[in-house]
Amino acid sequence: MTFDYARAKATADRLIQRFGQTGILRKAGTPSGPAYNPTPGAVVDHSCRFAIVAFEQREIDGTRVLATDKKAILAKGSLTVEPLPGDRLVDAAGVVYSVVDVMPLNPAGTTVMYELQVRR
After folding, report:
1. How confident is the model at residue 110 (pLDDT cuts 50, 70, 90)?
2. Could you write out the DSSP letters of every residue in 58-110?
3. Is 12 within 8 Å of 78 (Cβ atoms)?
4. Nearest-CA neighbor of 115 among 60, 70, 61, 63?
5. Rg (Cα) of the chain, in Å, rounded?
6. Reduced to 3 states, what is the DSSP secondary structure of residue 8?
7. Whole-model pTM?
8. Which pLDDT does position 81 carry in this prediction?
9. How far is CA 108 from CA 3, 12, 30, 111, 112, in A?
10. Quick one: which of 52, 54, 53, 28 has its CA closest to 41?
């Protein structure tokens, strides 16, 4: 028996669309110029949907996960890029979070959603 992960992705996208917010996944552009003096590339913004939730107390260790860190549940939706540590997540109010860790939920190679650890 095979499981239809495309259906799970559609459900995740629908729930995040309903209960989440529109924001921006901001990625740094590709640097150009010589290796000894590169010119930073222009940032590229990608529209996305996500929900920000708090980490559970048992998940906070004070070292890797701080008490002020948040968890962003990011919909795969039509997002064409992969979020990476170092990217920025901008919420609907303009608050900018730095992506610390990315944990994709991708059973059998189908990305359903991303769980991001973000920090202000």
Report:
1. confident
2. GG--SSSS-TT-EEEEEE-TT--S---TT-EEE-TT--EEEEEEEEEE-GGG-
3. no
4. 70
5. 16
6. helix
7. 0.88
8. 95
9. 9, 16, 30, 8, 10
10. 28
